[in-house]
Design a protein that fits this description.
Number of domains: 3
Largest sheet: 5 strands, parallel
Structural class: alpha/beta
Number of strands: 12
Strand content: 15-25%
CATH topology of the largest domain: Heat Shock Protein 90
Helix content: 40-55%
Shape: elongated
C-alpha cells in the first residue's frame, strides 16, 4: 500500500502489449509496477512488496509457476496474492497453479470488467485480513497489561510462607486461568498465520508434563461437577514430574486444552478421561487423550476439519482443527481412532 493509500499491483508478462493493456485497466485505481521477466518480477517483489501480483504463466526463462513458487517459499512475501494470467485452457495447469498458492486465474483475451472485479475482490480480501491482524494485535497489546497483573500477583502471593494449602491451590488456579487467557489472546492471529503457512515457530525449552497438569487443573472443577475423573500418566507413571521438550508452551497449552475439553464434553458421567505422555520407540513424543464414548458417524471422516461439530449446541468446530494446526506447526501430526466405546486422539510430535 502506497503512502496515498492506493494498493500496488505488479503486472508480469513478457509481452509489452499485454502489460500496457492491463495497466490501462488498473492504473486509475492502483499504483502499477511492471516486469517482463520472472527474474525482474522477483527483484521488484523483494524490494517493494506489492499488494497483488498478476503473473503470466508462459514466459521465456523462468516461467510463472517458478516465480509463484519462489514468492510463496519466502515467508516475507508468502502472503502476497498471486493471480495467473494465461491463454492456457488446461485444467492441469490451473491445478498446478492453485497448488503453488495462486488464488485465481484471468484468461486471455482480457475482459476489462472481469480484470477490475477480480483484482478489487482480492485486494479487499487482503485488506480485510490486514485489518483483522491489526485489530487483534491491538487487542493483544491492550489485554497483556492486565493479564500480566493476573499472572504476577499470584506468583508474589505464593511466596508468603503463611498461606494454607487451600489458599495456595486457589492462587495456583488463578495463575493457570491467566495463562489460559494469555494463550487465547495470542492464538487467533497465530492460527490465521498457520492457515496461510507463514507462521514462524519459536520453540523453547518447556515441560509437557507441567503444561498438561495446568490444563487438567483448569478443568478440575468442571470434571468434578460432571463426576468425571481426570488422570495424567507421564511415561506410564502417575508420579513422573517432568517431560522436557522443545516447543511453544502457550501453543501446546492451547492444543491440549482443546483436546481435553473435547474429551470431557464427550465423556459419560462417572467415567475417566486419560491423558498419557510418553516417548515413542522410533523417536519423538506421543500424547494420547482417551475417553469413553463414541464419535458421531457424520463427524468421523472430518473430525479435524474446520467447523466440524456434532451434538454440541455451543460447539464451534474449531478445537480439533486448531489442535491439528498447532501439532503440524511443530512438525508433528494428530489422528483419531474410535471403537469399542472408546475415543483416542493421538498427537505425534518430533523429538
Amino acid at each position: 500500500m502506497s503512502a496515498q493509500g492506493r494498493a500496488r499491483i505488479l503486472i508480469v508478462d513478457d509481452t509489452p502489449f499485454n502489460i500496457e493493456l492491463l495497466a490501462g485497466f488498473l492504473a486509475p485505481a492502483y499504483d502499477v509496477d511492471t516486469a517482463t521477466s520472472g527474474e525482474k518480477a522477483l527483484e521488484i517483489v523483494g524490494a517493494s512488496t506489492p499488494d497483488l501480483v498478476l503473473l503470466d504463466i508462459v514466459m521465456p526463462g523462468m516461467d510463472g509457476f517458478e516465480v509463484c513458487r519462489r514468492i510463496k517459499a519466502d515467508e516475507r512475501t508468502a502472503d502476497i496474492p498471486v493471480i495467473f494470467i494465461t491463454a492456457l485452457d488446461d485444467v492441469a495447469a490451473e491445478t498446478r497453479g492453485l497448488e503453488l498458492g495462486a488464488i485465481d486465474f484471468i484468461a486471455k483475451p482480457f475482459n476489462p470488467a472481469v480484470v477490475r472485479a477480480r483484482v478489487a475482490n482480492h485486494i479487499a480480501l487482503r485488506e480485510a485480513a490486514r485489518l483483522r491482524e491489526d485489530v487483534e494485535r491491538i487487542m493483544r497489546h491492550d489485554l497483556k497489561s492486565p493479564l500480566t497483573t493476573v499472572l504476577s500477583l499470584p506468583q508474589l502471593m505464593l511466596m508468603d510462607a503463611n498461606l494454607t494449602q487451600p489458599q495456595r491451590d486457589m492462587l495456583q488456579r488463578i495463575e493457570d486461568a491467566g495463562y489460559t487467557l494469555l494463550a487465547m489472546t495470542n492464538l487467533s492471529t497465530t492460527l490465521f498465520r498457520m492457515e496461510r503457512g507463514v507462521y514462524e515457530l519459536r520453540p523453547e525449552k518447556m515441560d509437557l508434563a507441567v503444561v498438561a497438569r495446568k490444563v487438567m487443573t483448569g478443568f478440575a472443577e468442571t470434571a468434578e461437577m460432571r463426576g468425571i475423573g481426570l488422570r495424567l500418566l507421564v511415561d506410564g507413571r502417575d508420579d513422573c514430574p517432568f517431560f522436557p521438550w522443545m516447543g511453544e508452551e502457550l501453543l501446546c497449552h492451547s492444543m491440549l486444552a482443546n483436546l481435553v475439553g473435547n474429551a470431557l464434553d464427550a465423556s459419560p458421567r462417572r467415567e475417566d478421561v486419560l491423558v498419557s505422555i510418553g516417548a515413542r520407540p522410533e523417536g519423538g513424543v506421543r500424547i494420547d487423550i482417551i475417553n469413553n464414548g463414541d464419535v458421531a458417524p457424520e463427524l468421523k471422516g472430518r473430525f479435524f476439519e474446520k467447523y466440524a461439530t456434532a451434538g454440541k449446541t455451543r460447539g464451534t468446530g474449531l478445537g480439533t482443527y486448531s489442535a491439528r494446526l498447532i501439532a503440524r506447526a511443530h512438525g508433528g501430526d494428530i489422528e483419531m481412532k474410535c471403537g469399542a466405546g472408546t475415543v483416542e486422539v493421538s498427537v505425534f510430535l518430533p523429538a
